[in-house]
Amino acid sequence: MNAPDVIVVGAGIVGAACAWRLTQRGLRVTLVDDGRPGATAAGMGHLVCMDDNPAELALTAWSLALWRDILPRLPDNCAWRDCGTLWLAQQPDELEEAERKRQRLADVQVASEPLCASALTAREPTLGAGLAGGLWVPGDGIVYAPNVARWFIEQAGERLTHITGEVIALEEPWLQLRDGRRLQAPAILLACASGANKLLAEQWLRIKKGQLAITDRYPARLSHQLVELGYAVSAHAPDGKSVAFNLQPRPTGQLLIGSSREYDNPDSRPDPVLLAAMLHRACDFLPWLADLNLIRCWSGFRSASPDGQPLLGPHPHRPGVWLALGHEGLGVTTAPGTAWLLADQITDNKPAIDAAPWLASRLNRQEVNA
Length: 370
Prior knowledge:
The protein is of the alpha/beta class. The chain folds into two domains: 6-43 and 145-205 and 307-365, FAD/NAD(P)-binding domain, CATH 3.50.50; 82-140 and 208-302, D-Amino Acid Oxidase, Chain A, domain 2, CATH 3.30.9. The chain contains eleven helices and 19 strands. It has an eight-stranded mixed beta sheet, with helices on both faces. Helix 1 runs parallel beside helix 6 (145-155), helix 1 (13-24) packs parallel to helix 10 (331-346) and helix 3 packs across helix 10 (331-346).
């Protein structure tokens, strides 16, 4: 086996996309993963343009543009649907936020359409009564992320070697595996979520536990991914527990219902109280959900940086170590942008967009200024 140019640690959708893109650039890649399911297996698989800050908007909009070239090539088991997103306003004052959102999306050439209450009902007739309106973003979609990650790995071809093993130490240019193997490469890319804290001897990433529930299979009642406009308030709460309504109609006829957020709780068991609050919130928007059977509830762990932005690029003090970490709930959406950015930086090419907002060196500046 030829020595790799890059070792990628973590075969979730971010690591798999990075490995695939690096092989497209002509590099030999070893992808190493411990085989345990992570955030890619636990998450919702949404492709959604988020605009809570300019950096997030730039990365999600660019990534969605990259996804548009990838999606038509995916096999059926990746379950891509161009269902768009309906952002739902419960109160009239939320329509002002919908308009601000429309303007921000328009600034990056992402189309959206404000909806009055009747127009919203025309798009989704089974929504609960009394909603003020919303915003339709037709370019969003959904995928089944675990199969997309596998597709990235398969498409990488002979330039990719995929091995299973647990990385327990990083002494660049070496990685030590628990089974005694040692791997070496000029570049080591960490895409292993909060597991990178231990390898880097840093505490840059906090876990953010989330919960989801899925129904039995039913005849289709919904056509769009649904998200409440107050979602950002929950997503960026600095501490504590929170829930927000987010639902996807899956191609199987099932409804995937989210979501909750809780910092620093490593217990993988679902929290029944928080789960009940999450489902109650969902019934505020779709009262008929209360009559459906849930067949499974589960938890997963997002990893979040101190400022909520991912860490994409070189480690600030360790030459040869690269980071693709801290995507929080946007790993699926931003996987292509992450892969393109890292591949360009590792091969010493100028990225298509400015990488500065996501460099890990910003964390050191924040520590100095604290």
